[in-house]
Amino acid sequence: MRSAFSILLVFVSLGNALAQSGCRASLSDVGEDAWQQLNASTNGRLVAVVPSAQYCYDVGCTDEQWVSSTWRGENMPGSMLQPNWEQDYDSSPPELCFRNTTGNCKHGDVPWYAVLAETVEDIQAGVNFARTNNLRLAIKASGHDYLGRSTAKDSLLISTHGLQNFTVHDDFDGHGSAVTVGSGMGLRQIYPALKETGKIIVGGNAATVVAAGGYIQGGGHSALSPALGLAADNALQFTIVTADGEHITADDTQNSDLFWALRGGGAGSWGVIVSATFRAYNAFNATLAYTYLTTNSTNATDIGSLMTTHAAHIHDFDAVHGGQYYYVLQNATGDGKRGFYAHTFFPNVSADTSKELMQPFLTEALATGAWGVLQEKYQEGVINDLIYAADNEGAQNTFMGSRLVPETAYDEPEAIGTMYTRLFEAGAHSVLGHIVAGGKVTENADIDSAIHPKWRTAKTHVIVTNSWTDDADMSSVQNMRSLFQTAQRPIMEKVTGSDAGSYSNEGDAYEADFVTTFFGQQNYGRLSEIKTKYDPDDLFIVKAGVGSERWNEKGLCKVA
Ligand SMILES: Cc1cc2nc3c(=O)[nH]c(=O)nc-3n(C[C@H](O)[C@H](O)[C@H](O)COP(=O)(O)OP(=O)(O)OC[C@H]3O[C@@H](n4cnc5c(N)ncnc54)[C@H](O)[C@@H]3O)c2cc1C
Ligand SMILES: *[C@@H]1O[C@H](CO)[C@@H](O)[C@H](O)[C@H]1NC(C)=O
Ligand SMILES: *[C@@H]1O[C@H](CO)[C@@H](O)[C@H](O)[C@H]1NC(C)=O
Ligand SMILES: *[C@@H]1O[C@H](CO)[C@@H](O)[C@H](O)[C@H]1NC(C)=O
Ligand SMILES: *[C@@H]1O[C@H](CO)[C@@H](O)[C@H](O)[C@H]1NC(C)=O
Ligand SMILES: *[C@@H]1O[C@H](CO)[C@@H](O)[C@H](O)[C@H]1NC(C)=O
Ligand SMILES: *[C@@H]1O[C@H](CO)[C@@H](O)[C@H](O)[C@H]1NC(C)=O
Ligand SMILES: *[C@@H]1O[C@H](CO)[C@@H](O)[C@H](O)[C@H]1NC(C)=O
Ligand SMILES: *[C@@H]1O[C@H](CO)[C@@H](O)[C@H](O)[C@H]1NC(C)=O
Question: Where would I find the beta strands (DSSP E) of 184-227?
Answer without folding.
Answer: 199-200
